[in-house]
Design goal:
Elements (H helix, E strand, L loop, with lengths): L10 E4 L21 H8 L3 E4 L9 H13 L9 H17 L15 H11 L8 H14 L4
Parallel strand pairs: 1-2
InterPro entries: Integrase_cat-core (IPR001584), RNaseH-like_sf (IPR012337), RNaseH_sf (IPR036397)
Organism: Bathymodiolus thermophilus thioautotrophic gill symbiont
Protein name: Integrase catalytic domain-containing protein
Length: 150
């Protein structure tokens, strides 16, 4: 189940994929508000906005991350079942966020990983966050321990 959290004026900006919208399955090509993601956003009082169709630059960074994840997991491995795939994906995402160096991160803030950037921004503007970065880190690694993946 997808869990969304809100903190004052938060919104979600997504592409037009079927996992986010029914825009292109309705007769008039308009959002009906009946899609599961729209309902979840509405319940959480989160504004859901869509990119304009055929504008890859709008979410190019997200698409690049998706490509990196796919290339390291589902395109590189053969899985026996969905649980095996989920376990491998989880391992990669932990590596990606806590250990992998990212050249796209700003050099002037002297961080190498997304987690280090998160901590940096938390120290500057803690009011923007729902949780402290260390609390998030603990949740991630506790989840792995419970699954026997330490």
């Amino acid at each position: 189940m997808l869990k969304l959290e809100q903190r004052g004026g938060t919104g979600h900006f997504t592409d037009n994929g079927l996992e986010f919208t029914d825009r292109f399955v309705t007769k008039d090509k308009q959002v009906s508000g009946k899609h599961k993601f729209d309902k979840l956003c509405s319940l959480s009082e989160i504004e859901h906005r869509l990119t304009k169709p055929a504008t890859p630059k709008t979410n190019g960074m997200v698409e690049r991350v998706n490509g990196t994840i796919k290339n390291a997991t589902v395109k590189a491995m053969t899985y026996q079942n969905i649980d095996e795939m989920k376990q491998d994906l989880n391992k990669f995402l932990i590596f990606y966020n806590f250990n992998r160096r990212h050249s796209g991160l700003r050099k002037e803030i002297k961080v190498r990983t997304p987690y280090e950037a998160l901590k940096y921004w938390y120290n500057l503007k803690p009011d923007l966050f729902i949780r402290e970065p260390d609390m998030f880190r603990s949740m991630v690694f506790e989840g792995r321990e419970q699954c026997g993946e330490t």
